[in-house]
What does this fold into?
Amino acid sequence: MKYIKYLLALLLCSFALFQHLSDLPVRLWDESRLAGNAFEMFKSGNYLVTTFWDTPDLWNTKPPLMIWLQVISMHLVGINELALRLPSAVAGLFTCWVIFQFCNKHLKSYVLGLISVLVLVTCRGYISEHCTRSGDYDALFTLFTTLCIINFYYYLRYSDNKFLYYTLISFTFAALTKGIASFLILPGLFICSLYAGKTVQILKNKHFYWGFGIFILVIGGFYFFREMASAGYIKACIENDITGRFMKVSDEHKTNFWYYLNNFISYRLEYWLYVIPLSLICLFWKEKTFKNSYIYLLISSLCFFLVISISKTRIIWYDAPIYPLFSLMIGLIIYKIYLMIYHWETHQLKNKWNIISAIFIMFVFAVPYYNTIKYNYLAKDWDLENYGMGMMWQKALKNEINLNGYYVCENGYEPINKFYRQVYNDKGHHVENLPFDKLHPTEQIVFGHQVILDYVKAHYNFRVIYQFENVYFCIIDGEINPEKANN
It folds into this structure.
């Protein structure tokens, strides 16, 4: 019976995380950029310097841990969407395990563990693109920040130096995943140490400095050798991640202080947002272990929320590390209600089967879990302008569309096309890019942007051979007005 309970938790989490993981084409911006980095690392064997178009990548300057894992995944399952996203989904599953173990081992409650992981996998902000459902940094980063926060709590609670080492090792892996972003959790840890009265003890503890030495050795060593291999890397990191993101608006992401709160309200937390204020009741819980755990989670989550809200660059997925903390806070108050029902059912109704308390849990999670499954099962790209070409490439890689002899026309920076074209050509095909304003008669082109279609209509006589969604397969017959086209 014991193992059946654990298997139930595993299956519920796994189904939410892994179902239809590879259905959608590679996503624009970060996932497609990492896909290009990972493919080139897979082919070149250069595991130190990430490249894009076979030159050192100084736009995506994060350390390469996530890309290493994607390369390993490519060796295991092939070069495809699943390989890119598998590390994120596995990181999500391990995060659930960390949350579950915190409840099951520390708080001595399997039910609380099950409730908390169910809250986590029904948070739209967590089971979503740019977190556990795509090949980005954030799910892996969230795993290590969660490990760091939980192990630091263990140290504050038990004063066992092994947890201090676990904290700093987790922090090191967080930095290897997303660089300077790992420092965003430090204000919360510092305030928690003040609340626990352990700050001076930590600063006097030689093991803190030994652990910090591990961080300096690993992270400092990486940045040193990366700079030696490709000069200008550290300067690019500072410009991209410190002065370019925290201190000023980056990449036109102009929002206000309440950006993340508004996202929680609109859809990122959905049902659970309204439970968080109710969870403040846990501050008055007589059981000190539960109460202290809640206070620690509250301080950590509030500090992280304030730090990312103060930052000048606010992007929707920067809130990912807060969801495991919220899941525990929400789980505690749901568990408190569950205990009330359980004790009433056991002592008043003399019901040893606890049917009512079990029905309560099913009632609480039925709709959120159903919506999570539905959202992923029925996932479909409505943004054909950005993803129509990706859907076309998926068919081409399944040999449902033959692109041999076609030129791909792009509208500026298109890393999705870049990744898929490299993979397609690696399978023995030959497809090249061609500027859409440099076309000649008899050339066969494929494109998926309205601006390209408008330009082709205005400048060329052409025939549409085949259309898939918003993707056009055309043959150019000639220019409408050669003089106008050349101007």
